[in-house]
Structure formats: C-alpha cells, structure tokens
Amino acid sequence: MSNESNIKFSDLDLNELVLKSVEEAGYEAPSAIQAETIPHLLEGKDLIGQAQTGTGKTAAFSLPLLSRLDLSSKDTQILVLAPTRELAIQVAEAMQSYARHLKGFHVMPIYGGQSIDIQLRQLRRGAHVVVGTPGRVMDHLRRKTLKLGNLKALVLDEADEMLRMGFIDDVETILKETPDTRQTVLFSATMPSVIKRITQKYLTDPVDIKVKTETSTVSTITQYYWSGKTSFKLDALTRYLEAEETGGIIIFVRTKNMTTELSEKLSARGYASVPLNGDIQQSMREKVINRLKKGNIDIIVATDVVARGLDVERITHVINYDMPADNESYVHRIGRTGRAGRKGTAILFIPPNGRRQLQGIERATGQTIEPLVLPSPQDISEARINRFKEMVNETAESQKLDFYEKIIADLEEENKLTLSQIAATLAFLVQQDRPLLVTPQSRIPDGKLGEGRDRNDRGDRNDRGDRNNNRRERGDRTRENRERSQGSKRKRGPTQAGMVTYRLDVGKSHGTEPRHIVGAIANEAGVESQYIQNIDISGDYSTVDLPEGMPKEIEKHLQGVRVMGQKLQLRQLTGKDSSETKSAKDKPKKDSKKSSK
Length: 597
Known about the structure:
One of its GO terms (molecular function) is RNA strand annealing activity. By secondary structure, the protein is α/β, with parallel strands linked by helices. It is 42% helix and 15% strand. Helix 5 links the parallel strand 3 (107-110) and strand 4 (129-132). The protein is globular, with a radius of gyration of 30 Å.
C-alpha cells in the first residue's frame, strides 16, 4: 500500500483516545509501514516488518497495541526490546505521547546506566508497557522483578541490530520466558539467517510486510544535512536564507500545527511565508500555489500530503525542517525541485542522534548527503549590503526622484551636511531594524554529525572514523576497528592517558568476540563505543581499556552483566583504584623507628 493513498488514521479503527492524541499532534495520514501494519496488529496477528530506520515503525506497532490495552489491570501487557538505551527511551516517550489520553496508563523504559532501585520501585507500582534493552530485561527477569505471565504482546525492534551487538541469545531467553499466547512483532531492516530462524521458531503464521522505498533521486539536486537541537533550528534556517540566493522554497514539516507555527515565525522575521496543510480548502490551496508561481510569496511551509504533485518552476530549494516519515517521503519531498533538468538544492534537518536515519536515507537514495556549512556573520553582512546596493540602484533607475533630490539639496545647504553624511543617515534609518553589519549573538552549532553531539548518541558504532576530518586518523581508526572485529592477535597497545585497564572474566573459551564486549559495556554502562579500547581476548578472560573515573555503582553493575552466559566480574587493573594499588596500600608499613636503629 503506498503512502500516497487517501487513507487516514481515522480509517484504521484505532482506539478513540489513541486516535485523539494522533489528531492533536496534527498528523494527517499514516506512512506506508503504518497503513499496512496497523490493521493486522489490531487483529492480534504476529507480524514481520522489514523496514529501514525512519519509516515510522514506532507508531506502526505502538498505536494498535495501545488500542488493545486493558487499563483495568496493572500487569505488564506489552514488552518492547530495543538494542540501545537511546532507542528504548525514544520508543517509551513516543508511546507515552500516543497514550496521553489513556487514564492511568504507565510506560517504563529500563536500561543499563540507570539506577536499578528506581526501576525496582517503578516496576512494583506497575507498568502496562515496558521498553528495555535485552541485558537489563534479563537482569530483572533473574531478580523476578519483571513479571511477564500476563504479557499480551512482545515487540523486537531492530532485531538485526540486536544480533549485531551480540544480544540475540538474551532475546531468545526472554522469548522463552513469555506466554505462548503472546502476539509477537518483529521489525528488522535486514533479514539474516539467525533472525529468520527466530521468526520461524517463535512467531505463529506471521504476516510478512516489506516496505519498498523509492530509491531514485534526481542528479540535478544537491543534497545537504544540518544536525542540531530543536532550539537552534529556526536560527540555522534563517541564517541560511539570509545569505543564500533562492527562488521559491518549500519547507516540509510533520504536522498541520507546525505549518502555521513556523510560517508565522518566518513572517515575523521578514520572509513572505504561507502555511499549506490539510485544513486549507482546495480553492485556497490553488491561490497559494499561484502566488508562489508569480513570486508574490517565496516560502510555503507544508505537510507531505498537500504538497504531493506540486510542480512550480521557480522552486529552487526544498528544506526538510522536520524529518520525513520514511525514505520514500524524503524522495517525494525533494522531487519538488530539480525538475526538467533544472538545478535544485535539498536540505535535511536532523536531530543530534540522527546518524542512523541519515544513513538509511543515503542507502535508499544511493547518494551521500554532505554537511551544510552555515554562512558566517560576515557572509550575512555581505549579502545584506549587496541587497541594499541593488535596492538603491533599482530605485534610482525606476523612480522619479526630483522631489526627494530637492529635499536633499536643502538639507545639504541648511545644515552644512555633506551628501555622504545625508546618504549614510538615510541608510541607517532604512536598515535600523535589519542592520547591514551583523554581529555574532548566540552560537549555532556547525551542524556536522560527530562533532558536538549528545554524549548519549551511540547510533554510529561503525562510523567512528567520521568523527575526525583528518584522513590519516580516520584510516587508523578504521583499521583498528577491523582488527578488533576479526579478533586480531596483535600485541596489546599501551593504555592511553585518561584510560584505565579492566579485566573481564569472559574469553575465547566462552565464544566471546569484541562486539559482545562493546555491546554489553556500551548499553549497560552508557560508555560510547569510541571509548571502549584495547580489547584483548585471551582463553578464559579479557582486558579492555575504559575512561577513568567510572562511577562505583556502574562498576558494580558491570560485574554482574553477562556476556555469552558468563558474568563479566569487571575489576580494575591499572589506575589509582586498581586492585594492584589497593593490595600495595594494604601491606603493613615498616616501623620507621625500628628501621632507623
């Protein structure tokens, strides 16, 4: 089913209170994966969804499963397994948003790095939905603090990622702990043989849905991305518009509410902008498009649905202010420019933790999207000065100025002012609301992923090399990662400054590989994978270098984390708190008096 169909969320038989939340958020129509998945999940069927990150799959399983909740019971009825704590938090927040009108609803994310006591208290109170990483879910199952006896649905989100990170054994263990009557939903971008085996073993007559994404983008479109927090987006957008030569612009947002909100903010900053959404009648929509064609307005802020099929020759830029629902939507959006051989520019605004979404779009389109370099204050000043000069020249050529010339002559004679002084004064008065000389105010991030990102963004484990522009360092890191993944027997390198060495009670004899150690520590301790270094795997133990200053409670927690069924029993070998140093401290000191005799 294409997401170009006329289907609406109101056609999908969702719970009225869940539907109310969706409509209040301003979403107009389901994406392809949502339209195809929701009806089957409402019927209670098992389902396999093969879809890339960024296709809207969180809503695809959340909306129907929330619609079937029994709020009279405090039992955990839905369990979502996610490979990283970032995704677990994201899914939990989305489900809380969709369920905000469900009275008494509770959702709880559980993951490593968070206090176990907090989680224990919340689980005792009861949570209808638990979203967790496999390691922490296993921990609570062993403690018997997470009870799944009345579980109705289990979701495996990004199953191939859980396989890559070494969690698949934990996933199978958790599956065995759940009732046979549960509904099982599995989403995966790819379908390796291990994932296929799990679907055959644990899913019953599953519906198989694959979302085909359009992968052709026009070669005449130059594509950029800018990454930053929401609070910086408007300033980044207007800074770009200030210095860039543009024709017509379409800015895409996700909701109807946002079309109006952003359009008003742009108008307040001096841009001729109009919203376009599903609440606008067809006759008014046509008037807006005609105004854009004629150049009476320059910017339309629109949702996907109303902009489909829009073909205006003067559109030079498409700006994805909000991430598209899926890769196909991205292709449709940017296709509004670069038509009939004309050149166009597409810009994608992504959140700081959006690397994987960006990579999904790049894979789907077969093109690399480069970071956008925002114009500097000097660039903006030059653009304003050039526009001012053009305005003066055009006005001088097109208007009769005899009357004004007489006033200037009188000013010059009466006040002993030079023509330059008068002209400068008039320029100041004209531009005082928009000074020609721009001074830097708040610093806007450069928008390149991998620099200044949130510490919690670990979605780019395989792209550590992109963190540094130095080509040689990037190559060195790539080689180091490759050696780790192949279990190289190279000699262990020296421990770098700021790092300490730990011993782990898992090794080659347990089938341990570097990826298992990286996955466990990254998820359970919240350590970015770039800071998990010098992994050396021996027969029955391993060593690894981690940043110094790790909180004691995290160290204690990692001792009990299991890899390949073995507890890590992590303990420090180097540094001021190491076991070696402690043993030296514990030795009795010689009596100084005796030694002096």
